[in-house]
Amino acid sequence: MSSGTKGLAAHSPGGGGVLDQSSFIDAQSLMAIKNLELRARLVVEGFWHGLHRSPFHGFSVEFSEYRQYTPGDDPRYLDWRLYARSDRYYVKKFEDETNLRCHLLVDQSRSMAYGSIAHTKAAYASTLAATLAYFLNLQGDAIGLLTFDETLRAYLPARHRPGHLRHLMLKLEQSAAGSLTNLAEPLQRIAQTVKRRALLVLISDLLSPIENWQKHLTALTACGHEVLLFHILDPAELNFAFDRAVMFHDVESGKRLFVDPVVARKDYLRKMEAHNDSVQSLCQGLGIGYSRFATDRPLELALFDFLRARMRRGKLVKRRLS
Amino acid sequence: MSFLAPLFLLGGLAIGLPILLHLIRRSSKEQIPFSSLMFLAPSLPRVAKRSKLEHILLLLLRCLVVCLLAFAFARPFIQRATTAPLAAETLHKIVILIDASASMRRDGIWPAALAKAQGVLKSVAPNDKVALYTFDRQIHAIVPFGQWSQLPASERIPFTQSRLSELKPGWSGTQLGSALTSAAETFAEADEQGQNQGSRRLVLISDLEEGDRLDGLQGYDWPHGLEVQIEPVQAKHPTNAGLRSISEPEATPTAEKDVGPRVSVSNSSTARREQFQLKWGSIAAATALEVYVPPGQTRTVRVPAPPAGTIRDRLVLVGDDDDFDNTLFLVQRDPEQVRVLFLGAEAAKDTTQPLYYLGHAFQQTRQQAIKLEVHASTTPPTDKDLAAARLLVATDPLPDNLIEPIRGNLAAGGTLLLAMKSPDSAVTIGRLAGVTGISATEAAATNYAMLARIDFTHPLFAPFADPRYSDFTKIHFWKHRHLETGSLTGMRTLAAFDNGDLALGELPIGKGRLLILTSGWHPSDSQLALSSKFVPILYAMLESGSGSHPPLAQFQVGDPVGLAGVAASGSGQPLTVLKPDATRVVLTAGETSFAQTDLPGIYEVVSTQPALRFAVNVDPAESRTTPVPIEEFERLKVPLKASLVEVSRQAEHSRHIQNSELENRQKLWRTLTLAALLILLIETWLAGWMARRASFQLEGAS
């Protein structure tokens, strides 16, 4: 087990940290790398690289406090180096150690197969999931994987053992040729499957009416799970930057609709905004960390958001990188 | 260039259709996948900006096709100048006939009528022939054709206009039918004057009231080429009620019989008021009789006798809009004293004798007080008695001493009814007629005889001419005498028995006449006295008898008043009549008819003692002011001139026919349609070529 992380709290938005996005790997360049594991490692390393370049370098909060030794304390925790310097007995107090179980819930419905740029939402989501898995694996946390479309497709229980990460990467690399987006049933199944309290990271485009899956998401939080939601959207979905009136083909339902973007854009953006806002307010209400990602956004930022959300709940996992 | 169906040119607006189709961006068949359509709504095809119009040449060709088709459907043709020379200015003959009857006195009518006449005059060309007439009961020439022609051309219209402005409506009734036919005949007079060219138009300006008598128009053979143009004028107010006398008032009302005249009040069918009042004397009279007359109906009322001290000779109707016919003039006159002499020795109460029935037949009426005087041979009538008697009746042979006086009386115009109770009366007939050898025999006794041949043209039987009253078969004659009439020259058989014997004959003697009845009316001879026809026949004899006949008391405006009886009884002086407007009219010597009854009111013959009064009223028909529909004239086959609208419609129709013939000859639409087809072919080829070229380019690009 690792013993902690270093300096992550300094990167919270309230902490006044500066993130130089130009230093991150461009998402499209990253996605050009075929190997998912390699992609994940690049992101995580880049992430660390970014951290070291932060102006808060050297500020350490690796332990919670020092206090003077009092009889009855476990002598194992005496800091002998400090005793050597100061001739005082101090006890190094660590936060409680926990074994984090993290389940990555990756949407592989057909809508995730859409991409207006070089990569699809599904590829981006897989990379994000792999990155998180790699990162958590580095921290020594147990990682599980659930992929779903309208039902559960693949399930890897949360483990931390050699080869598990590779197995997980392989599962993620399998093509996302699912069917409809139906969050309700997968969420229900996940609640039944994941019994122990865990961190659930839901990566989805959430393109289904919110009222369909709202109560199941609520049920997940009610079970005591900590939930993080990465809302993956294509840039074209966010700005609807089409210019020609064409027949739009719904990749999920197969329906066709003649749409003139010039006429329909305003209405589309309004509805999209309303949907996103309601998702966001739902997450806020349930205490779910919410991050919206356009697929052209650097993945390192996803790690920042991930850790920021964890810190916000005061449950920052302290792991010392080995 | 003209068009037969110019409305089809509107089809050219369809040119907008290809332009619009070109403006609409073709909905692409291209599909792009999208993650979800849950935020999208279907869009309508969008119109491109004008600057983005594609395939201008195709568009132009398509627009051209639409235009050519619209042009072809509008059936164009090229109007050529008509080669026929314009008809020389035609001569019009126009008779303006203005109604000047009493009903034209209503409010607003006469100025409107004059305005219409002036309008006609203004449209008249100097070369036209115009005549101006007015009419009421008859037609009055104001400016006849002859006078118009004699005037210098420049003065004709001003002169006629000045004459027109002098006109005023009269008080007479209307004989529209005869006026129209008379006016139509004036054209014939003009033709006789050598002006038999040009069109003929009769302009009738009238209120066309219901009371206009149109009888004369039925079956009238209208001159060829004559057109009647009716210009109706309307009154400002629709309500008009009229008065008409039904019976004359009692001359000397007694306390028990204090009743006034019976009058009928009629209301026009277009009236808006129904409640009227009748007042004696004037509108200002205090007492009034309320009369309720619904529109279009007539009510007959008995007017109470006027209170003492009020004017009794006129009754005023109050409550309608027009007052020209609201005063009814009444003259109360004592019954005329009529003397009938019966020459014979019969007892007046002997029911088996003719005298008894004669006495009962001649009852006193309101107009006549008949005095039947019986003169037996012992009391022969004097010459004065004979002269005063209107009718002499004898049933027995006359004594010799009476023959000559009676002959003299007959020669002077008297009437003798001789009922032959016995064949002996034949001698009297012979002596009165101055013929010898007249004999009569008792006719052969059959069951009974009936009147078979009756001369209904004679005044005695004229009242029975109607088939409803002409049945004389119920009068049975048990006995009659067979009179040999061969030597009686001038004998007119008024009725004959079914066996051919004379029943009633008229033999003129001098100015008078001898009526011979070959039977009697007493029960032993016949049932004549019991018949309902007996009294009318006797009265008819009395009417046609000699003696002075005072004129009737009631006349209508325009009626001639016969004053022969007055003149006869007078002193031979010329008669003087005082008119209601206080002018005096002196009739020339020997003139016995007064025709100048042109005003309603009380007239007085002042030259007699006592003065004879008679009332002249407006024709009651004038009160029926509801207009006659024009269709009534059409029904009477009046050659009505089409109205201006009709004329223009006909002209339009004929022009349309000419145009369609012209278009039919030119057939420009065929050329245009062929051109449209050709352009369509070119367009199709061009569109195909462009599509192919585009696909080649695409293939080349790919």
Description:
The complex is a heterodimer of chains A (322) and B (702). By secondary structure, chain A is an alpha/beta fold. Helices cover 39% and strands 18% of the residues of chain A. Chain A has helices spanning 27-31, 36-52, 80-86, 121-139, 164-173, 184-193, 210-222, 235-239, 261-286, 300-312, and strands at 65-68, 90-93, 101-107, 142-148, 152-159, 199-204, 226-233, 246-250, 256-259, 289-294. Chain A starts with 26 loop residues before the first helix and ends in a 10-residue tail after the last helix. Chain B is of the alpha/beta class. In chain B, 27% of the residues lie in helices and 24% in strands. In chain B, the strands form 8 sheets. In chain B, strands 17-16-18-19-25-24-23-21 form an 8-stranded mixed sheet, sandwiched between helices. Chain B has a 5-stranded mixed sheet with strand order 6-5-4-7-8. In chain B, a hairpin with an 8-residue loop joins strand 14 and strand 15. At the A-B interface, strand 8, strand 9 and helix 9 of A face strand 2 of B. Strand 8 (246-250) of chain A pairs parallel with strand 2 of chain B, so a sheet runs across the interface.
Short overview:
The complex is a heterodimer of chains A (322) and B (702). Chain A is an alpha/beta fold and 322 residues long.
Keywords:
heterodimer, A: 322 residues, alpha/beta, Rossmann fold, 6-stranded mixed beta sheet, two-stranded antiparallel ribbon, 10 strands, disordered N terminus, disordered C terminus, B: 702 residues, 5 domains, 8-stranded mixed beta sheet, 27% helix
Show the helix and strand layout:
The complex is a heterodimer of chains A (322) and B (702).
Chain A: H1 27-31, H2 36-52, E1 65-68, H3 80-86, E2 90-93, E3 101-107, H4 121-139, E4 142-148, E5 152-159, H5 164-173, H6 184-193, E6 199-204, H7 210-222, E7 226-233, H8 235-239, E8 246-250, E9 256-259, H9 261-286, E10 289-294, H10 300-312
Chain B: E1 2-3, H1 16-23, E2 31-34, H2 56-73, E3 76-77, E4 92-99, H3 109-122, E5 129-135, E6 139-143, H4 145-150, H5 153-166, H6 176-192, E7 199-206, E8 226-232, E9 241-247, E10 259-267, E11 275-280, E12 289-292, E13 298-304, E14 314-318, E15 327-329, E16 336-343, H7 354-361, E17 368-375, H8 383-388, E18 389-394, H9 400-411, E19 415-419, H10 425-433, E20 440-442, E21 451-454, E22 481-483, E23 492-497, E24 502-509, E25 512-517, H11 534-543, E26 554-556, E27 561-562, H12 564-569, E28 576-578, E29 584-586, E30 593-594, E31 601-605, E32 612-617, H13 630-635, H14 644-666, H15 668-701
Parallel strand pairs in B: 4-5, 4-7, 7-8, 16-17, 16-18, 18-19, 19-25, 26-32
Antiparallel strand pairs in B: 1-3, 5-6, 9-10, 10-13, 11-12, 11-14, 14-15, 20-22, 21-23, 23-24, 24-25, 27-30, 28-29, 28-31, 31-32
